[in-house]
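ESCALATION

Customer reports they have been waiting on this structure for their group meeting. Please prioritize. Original submission:
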Amino acid sequence: AGDSSVLTCCLKPNITMVTWKISPRIGDSCTLGYRADRNKTDRTNCSDSINWKFRPDLDPALEIGQVGIAHEGTYTCEVVTPEGNFHTPYYLTVLVPPRLTLSCDDHGNPVCEAASGKPAAQISWVPESNSTPEEEGRDDGTVTVLSKVTACGSNLINTTCIVWHPAGNQSESIVC
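Update from on-call: job pushed to the front of the queue and completed.
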């Protein structure tokens, strides 16, 4: 999420037409088209963040600026030439790194939160703990994971929360 993404399409000689058909997981579909005989591009229902990377007659790649969860879905490029039609399908999945916060609760127990990640993050502790993480789904498709260590009278001097996520791992330490 937040970065630009470029989806390439096979470049063939003697292109007659190029069409990008975009079917987001949520929302209306959109289409970008190019006709070589008229040297004309057309767009239907596409947001400004979806556009040709350069010029479709030279490179039919698609660029998505500042990718967000709303961009998830199927993207299919169809190139039409005298030799036939060539399809390049993609399914775009958006990863959202969670925001890590580590604090101490009213009882002096470490509490780790991996907020608004997609997919849900995994949380572990050093030293190892028998904590059971709680997950809360959000309307935007992200998930917040909360994990608490109950010290049960032991004197934990330094506790580290490790958040594992496909978009990158994070860790923080705290003394409660």
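Sent to customer with the following note: The chain has a mean pLDDT of 90.
Escalation resolved.
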